[in-house]
Amino acid sequence: MPRRTAPAVLSTLLCALALFGTTTQAWIHAAVTTSLQPVTVDVTGADAAPAVTALGLVAAVAAVASALGGRILRTVVGVVVVLAGAGAVAAVLAVTADPRAAAQPAVGAQTGVISGGGEYAMTAWPWAAVAAAVLLGLCGIWLVLVAQRVRARATQRYDRAPLTGAAGPQDTAATGQDVTDEGSTSAAGASSTPPGETQAAEHADDIDTWDALTRGEDPTRNT
């Protein structure tokens, strides 16, 4: 996992676990009256809003998956996390809007009585769940932005111009042409001596050699 995406992934995982943790606490204190005596039932978030528990687990698993995946997977996970956060907020607000209806299944399971009477007091944990869900949605947006930023950096890296030190085929051809031109110039300079002067020098050398032989001298001694 790249270091640039590690903070976003870790924050997403922590917010998802925090959201899940709030559902293990009592959200509603229900005081109901049975045929025998008054009973107080503590309704947890998992009983009052099972969807919040499920969404917290989904976001946590998605965060772990994004740590093992690539850019495309992180983008998908970011979108899923945003949707999970929004869904969790909606589910919690539904509980706060009607705590009686949210607590009735748990109260009926513990007391065996389903009654519309009684007092249903909210605790602070549903609002903590809202805060965790909002932060979770922001972390999902963060994941998407980080994934897009990594994509932009990768695109810029592969779009850079090639190194200027490398000579292409045209440069090589131009260099070869220059070398050829220089060689042609040198050859032209070397052959610029008139043919008559060359023949005269060779004839003078032959005369000197013949005179040395006539005098009984070795013409190759001074060579």
From TrEMBL:
This is Trp biosynthesis-associated membrane protein. Residues 214-223 have a biased composition (Basic and acidic residues). Residues 183-196 have a biased composition (Low complexity). Residues 1-26 form the signal peptide. The keyword Membrane applies. It comes from Kocuria rhizophila. Residues 162-223 are annotated as: Disordered. The keyword Transmembrane applies. The chain crosses the membrane at residues 50-69, 76-97, 124-147. Keywords: Membrane, Signal, Transmembrane, Transmembrane helix.
